[in-house]
Amino acid sequence: MDRDGTESKTIQSVENAFRILNELLRREQATVTELSDVVGLSKGTVHHYLATLRNENVVEQVDGKYQLGLRSLSFGGAARERETVFQIGKDGVDRLAETTGETARLVVERDGYGITLHQATSADRNEVQTYLGTRENLHSTAAGKAMLSVMDNEHKDIVSQVQLSQHTEHTIVDPAELREELADIRSSGIAFDNEEQFDGVRCVATAITTDTDDLLGAISVNGPAERIDDAMFYKEIPQALQNVAGVIEINTAYLGWMEQTTENLT
To answer: Would you say the pTM of this structure is higher than 0.85?
Structure first.
């Protein structure tokens, strides 16, 4: 079923190819046998798919294992570059990483998940658990909850459509509790993830919206709980996030005004 609720026919072979690619994304590397066991296709069939994808440079073979090829980066890079929020927000995310000394991300919502569009990390940090294109549940991350707070309102009950998976013992899986937290986020403009997605990791985020309150995405800062104390978690990082988000939203409004002015002149 399409996102607009209409039924459409799909091509099984394309679906199979993406199942293989998704598994390679999840595992980083895998053998034909490993892929066959997971996707439910014979080893011969999986090998044929991989040979085709390899000919197109979408996958590579290294020491008997398969991994995503660099051509995949071309698709992702082209998709990312067309996002206005990436063009306007990437520099702010870089500044956040520099000023906080932690990992900063720009995240957008697609099909009920948060997708990492840009990520910047302090040079001496090696505990990063996300990467470009990482797809995460909305309810268990600060960026996801920040976006949910904009998406979920009296006209659109998004929470009822979200699968509340348990990631750690701190993950909110009760809809009523999540709705209560989203109300707090709408009021304060700041979302917190206190070891809800990953054990030992704290994250703070704020949503980015247009001047008409349409959701563009969210920016976040995360790092080890042992390094992000309460003062940094509840005060310093939220202030830094709101400063950067304000600049991004002003630039977005200005870009929209420029585009509208150009259209009127033509």
So the answer is: no
